[in-house]
Specification:
With 125 residues, the chain is mostly helical. Helices cover 54% and strands 0% of the residues. The longest helix is centred in the middle third of the chain and has 23 residues.
């Protein structure tokens, strides 16, 4: 059994970055929905990130030939439902679960032996 003591890589993202990645999937009509998950997998390298990326790549590899070989004039309703559900799942993952929350910054500690600055009434304690 191999254990590592390396620190987990974090990928912090603000709301603008999360919305931009989610919008990429919607504006490309689901064709590029796998790209944000590849970005996350390359940056963090966790097995769960690679699994999410692989699942969305597999989705594209299945639905694109399926849509191209569909010879119905009106389209396939199951394919449409699958595309919308996949985009919704990707959006929820990108907005709430994929990126790590920002770590709060702590104020700097005073020099050794010094007292921290305290606001308040400066005269006659």
């Amino acid at each position: 059994m191999v254990t590592t003591t390396r620190a987990q890589k974090r990928l912090e993202g603000g709301w603008f970055q999360r919305l931009a990645w989610a919008a990429l999937g919607w504006f490309s009509l689901g064709l590029l929905v796998w790209v944000p998950f590849l970005y996350v997998a390359l940056r963090r390298g966790r097995p769960s990130d690679w699994g999410a990326c692989a699942s969305f790549v597999l989705y594209e590899c299945v639905t694109l030939p399926w849509a191209a070989n569909s010879n119905d004039g009106d389209g396939d309703p199951f394919l449409g439902v699958a595309a919308v559900v996949t985009l919704l799942i990707a959006t929820v993952l990108l907005l709430f679960w994929v990126f790590d929350k920002k770590t709060p910054t702590t104020p700097p500690l005073p020099a050794y032996g010094g007292q921290p600055y305290q606001q308040g009434y400066p005269y006659g304690r």
